[in-house]
């Protein structure tokens, strides 16, 4: 039999290695520009080289590591240019999602879920401060993801999830919330009410305004950190 067979991959091992290495990158336990040694990772996690190599390919596709010819694999930082591009794509995806939901027969169900999340967020904040910023951030992410998930478009969702990986890194460098809670709540409310009333222009404008302040603060933070996070 003259065929070339593809070796069976231990997918679950690759997933586990990917999750472990990604978690260390996101927490910056592995620093920017630090080399990831395949053999060392394999030995530490008690696996063969194959799942480590496969995991690194996925991390490279995510934009978290860079494979340099004849040198190895290194952790990538986030530059000002990266941040600008990330926010441009995020804004485009969320604006598309808002318009999709506005035109969808599921509008009422989606906006009801968003309203519940908005109410959840208010429990973690006052006008002047966040009572539990971590819990607020979880509900905040769910609020935005509700729009994305409603599109029922796996490629859109995958791209958005990839952006959120990099958003997590950028947020982790801030020791205080980026935008005052009263303003965040007002912006979320404006987006929700625009989608409920099926005002696409207002929804898109609200999303753009909501992301603008965060974008500028993150870009300034990158500049103050020497040009990379």
Q: Secondary-structure blueprint of this entry?
A:
Elements: H1 11-26, E1 35-36, H2 38-45, H3 49-62, E2 65-68, E3 72-75, H4 80-103, H5 107-122, H6 133-150, H7 154-171, H8 181-196, H9 200-224
Helix pairs in contact: 1-3, 2-3, 4-6, 4-7, 4-9, 5-6, 5-8, 8-9
Using only C-alpha atoms, the radius of gyration works out to 20 Å
The averaged pLDDT comes out at 91
Largest sheet: 3 strands, antiparallel
According to CATH, the fold-level topology of the largest domain is Four Helix Bundle (Hemerythrin (Met), subunit A)
CATH superfamily grouping of the largest domain? GntR ligand-binding domain-like
CATH class call of the largest domain? Mainly Alpha
Give the strand order, joined by hyphens, for the main sheet.
1-3-2
Sequence of secondary-structure elements:
HEHHEEHHHHHH
Query: What is the CATH-assigned architecture of the largest domain?
Result: Up-down Bundle
Query: Which regions contain 5 or more consecutive residues with pLDDT less than 50?
Result: none
Taking the alpha carbons of the first and last residues, their distance comes to: 53 Å
Structural class computed from helices and strand pairing: mainly alpha
What is the 3D shape? globular
As for the number of domains, it is 2
Q: Helix proportion of residues, in percent?
A: 55-70%
Number of helices: 9
Oligomer: single chain
Instruction: Quote the beta fraction.
Output: under 5%
Count of β-strands: 3
């Amino acid at each position: 039999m003259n065929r070339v067979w593809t070796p069976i991959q231990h997918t679950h091992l690759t997933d586990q290695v990917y999750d472990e290495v990604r978690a260390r990158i996101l927490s910056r336990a592995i620093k920017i520009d630090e080399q990831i040694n395949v053999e060392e990772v394999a030995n530490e996690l008690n696996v063969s080289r194959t799942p480590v190599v496969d995991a690194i390919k996925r991390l490279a596709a995510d934009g978290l590591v860079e494979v340099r010819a004849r040198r190895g694999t290194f952790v990538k930082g986030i530059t000002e240019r990266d941040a600008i591009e990330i926010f441009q794509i995020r804004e485009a995806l969320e604006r598309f999602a808002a318009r999709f939901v506005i035109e969808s027969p599921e509008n009422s169900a989606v906006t009801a879920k968003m309203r519940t999340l908005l109410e959840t967020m208010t429990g973690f904040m006052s006008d002047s401060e966040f009572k539990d910023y971590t819990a607020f951030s979880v509900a905040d992410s769910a609020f935005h993801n509700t729009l994305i998930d409603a599109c029922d478009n796996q490629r859109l969702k995958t791209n958005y999830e990839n952006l959120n990986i990099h958003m997590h890194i950028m947020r982790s460098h801030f020791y205080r919330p980026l935008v005052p809670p009263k303003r965040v709540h007002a912006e979320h409310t404006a987006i929700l009410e625009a989608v409920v009333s099926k005002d696409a222009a207002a929804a898109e404008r609200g999303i753009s305004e909501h992301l603008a302040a965060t974008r500028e603060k993150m870009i300034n933070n990158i500049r103050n950190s020497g040009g990379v996070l």
